[in-house]
């Protein structure tokens, strides 16, 4: 079995490579917005939407 994604917790954010410089992560509001997603969702940060998957 191939493992595609692994996490030790927290939300999994699918951020396009060209948008990584806009993602503030735990140092800004982006992480709080991602944590507010209860299952699957999309949040906006910077100039674009980002897919969020909260497993747990």
Say what oligomer this is.
single chain
Mean pLDDT: 75
Major β-sheet annotation: 3 strands, antiparallel
Give, in spatial order, the strands making up the sheet with the most strands: 1-3-2
Describe the structure.
With 56 residues, the chain is of the alpha+beta class. It contains one helix and three strands; from the N terminus they run βαββ. It has one helix spanning 29-35; strands spanning 12-14, 40-45, 48-53. Strands 1-3-2 form a three-stranded antiparallel beta sheet, with helices on one face. The longest helix is centred in the middle third of the chain and has 7 residues, at 29-35. It is globular, with a radius of gyration of 11 Å.
Secondary structure elements and their pairing?
Blueprint: E1 12-14, H1 29-35, E2 40-45, E3 48-53
Antiparallel strand pairs: 1-3, 2-3
Short summary of the structure?
With 56 residues, the chain is of the alpha+beta class.
Comma- or semicolon-separated keywords:
alpha+beta
């Amino acid at each position: 079995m191939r493992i595609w994604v692994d996490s030790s917790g927290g939300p999994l954010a699918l951020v396009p490579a060209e948008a990584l410089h806009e993602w503030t992560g735990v140092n800004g509001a982006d992480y709080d917005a991602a944590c507010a997603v209860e299952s699957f969702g999309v949040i906006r940060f910077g100039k674009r939407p980002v897919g969020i998957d909260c497993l747990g």
